[in-house]
Amino acid sequence: MMKKLRFNSATIHGGQSPDPAYGAVMPPIYQTSTYAQSSPGDHKGFEYSRTHNPTRSALERSIASIENGQHGLTYASGLAAMDAVMKLFSPGDEIISTNDLYGGSYRLFTKIFENYGLKFHFVDMQDSNHVAKYVNENTKLIWVETPTNPMMNIIDIKGMAALAKLKNVLLAVDNTFASPYLQQPLDLGADIVMHSATKFIAGHSDVVLGLLVVNDDDLQEKLAFIQNASGAIPGPMDSFLTLRGIKTLHVRMQRHSENGAAIANYLNQHSKIGKVYWPGFESHPNHQIAKDQMNDFGGMVSFVPKGGDLATAIKIVEKIKVFTLAESLGGVESLAGHPASMTHASIPKEEREKSGVVDGLIRLSVGIEDVQDLIEDLEQAIG
Question: Among 199, 252, 352, 363, which one carries the catalytic annotation?
Answer without folding.
Answer: 199
